[in-house]
Amino acid sequence: MKTRITVLCDNIVGLKSNLLGEHGLAILIERGEESYLFDTGQGQALFHNAATLGKDLRKVKKIFLSHGHYDHTGGLEKVLALKGERDIWVHPHAFLPRFSIEKGDETKIRNIGMRYSRIQLEEMGGRFHFINSFSEIEEGIYLTGEIPRINSFEKVDTDLKVETEEMLVQDDCRDDLSLVIDSPPGLIILLGCAHAGIVNTLTYIQEKMGARKIFAIIGGTHLDSGDEIQLRETLQYLKDLSFEKFGVSHCTGLKATNYLMNHLKERLFIAHTGIVLEI
Prior knowledge:
The chain is α/β, with parallel strands linked by helices. Helices cover 22% and strands 30% of the residues.
């Protein structure tokens, strides 16, 4: 069965393109006659880009959300408005009130959580399925659920906070999950932001999927906030890992992208808006 992966939203667009870029991520998965959406970006570019690329989002069977930040869930209500009821798979922590601390001349607190509550989205037609553990959602399509944090160099972003009844506390992004497609040439792994860490994520997927070869990894890596130790350890892990393609996007950042590309060479590419991978 042919699988086509299309990046509908990313921070970057290719040259000579009528597509729009935005800080966010949305990836369309087409497998045979079925289509699925992994994240929805902020919602500003999703429909323009889908229409430009000839993709009908009314045909999307299921929606998978990598975590509950606005730049991955912002287009959800617009997708629901297209066709009403839709199955949505997400970790139960996705609806927590999330904030980012922006430090400069003045410290600012920015709301980065989901724009609508669970009740509001259910009224729009969202049917939520909450997932904690590694699960097969469709034949050959898996969601990781919560990813164990096993190494010391992939640290939580200290600028990310979650609201409790009394105060803002560190957000460890336990809702971070990734998607795995089992295809003939090997596993295709889609990352949202990889808040749990790329190494933690890939290690966990290999533990669950056994000796299956990794064909492609695509998505955000959150390495833009990583330190030199994390970059170095991540590169060492990737150099030792058997895979054919790694398409970095969204929260990887220019510094980390250049660093990885200098070492991984042709195996690394920028998974910008509009790029298509066919398997």
